[in-house]
Structure formats: structure tokens, C-alpha cells
User: Fold this.
Amino acid sequence: MKSFFIRAIISTVMLGLLSFAVVVNADAAAIGIGKEAYGFTLETLTGEKITLSTELKTKKVVLIFFTTWCPHCASSVPAANAFYKEYGEKVRVLAIDIQEPKDKVKKFAKKTKMTYAVAVDSTGVIANRYGISGIPTIIAIGKNNKILYRGTSISSMEKRVEF
Assistant:
């Protein structure tokens, strides 16, 4: 009986340490201004494959992390559409939904009239690598693969980054 309790205590301590390591690792993944962007390839809702490193050869990239259930994400679409209309020739705008079914995302994109590319991070790996903890999160990346802006507003980004 005594060995059972000792094992239980050791297991509890080990789980606690493991949980702490996961939280520390997640915090380390958050990248900010001046840091290198993480590479990825995603397929858009229209079937286009987008590879970050390829896009950065010719344009800056703006990533918009979102979900369909987020009211702030839906209300930010008009500003993103306006940004895309003005800068779409020079900047690749990519909305990345986090872990939702593709059909649900398609309906949302149609309902909110998103005019820029939309993809789904079905596993959440990309959002995790970028340390996304709130949505919407907007990340602007320069051609040199460095983060130029990280925040929650397209208009705030436009004031801080030259496009």
C-alpha cells in the first residue's frame, strides 16, 4: 500500500513537471517583431498551395489568424478587405483559420465576404508555432522573413508598417 502512494505521488509530480514544460514551450513559441517567421505550406479554400518562403521572394505577407466563432474576427473582415484591395499587388494577405472544419470556414468566408486567400490550419501546428493565444492576431512579415508587426488590428498595422 505504501509503494502505491509513493508511485502516485511520483506520477503526480512528473505530470506537473510535464505540464510546466509544455506551458514554457508554448510561451517560447510566441514570436515578435524582428524575429524570424516560421515557414509553412497551406492549401487555400480554392485549392491554391501557399508556401511562405515562396511568397516572401516577391511580396511581404500578412497573416490573419482567426476562427469562425470570434465576433471580432468577423467584424475585422471589412478592414482586411480594404487593405487587400489597396495593397494586394504588393502584399500577400492570407487568413488562417485555426482548427475548424473546412466547410464551416467556407461558409464563414462567403458570409463575411472575404476577398483574400483563406486557409485552414487543421492541426493548429502553425498557430502554435506563432504562439497565437488570442484572435484575431495579425502578423506582417517582410521579404527578409522577419516579423514587422504582431497585433490585433489591420489599421494599427498600416500605421506601423510601410507597404
In short: Strands lie at 41-43, 49-51, 60-66, 91-98, 117-121, 137-141, 147-151. Residues 32-160 form a domain with the Glutaredoxin fold (CATH 3.40.30.10).
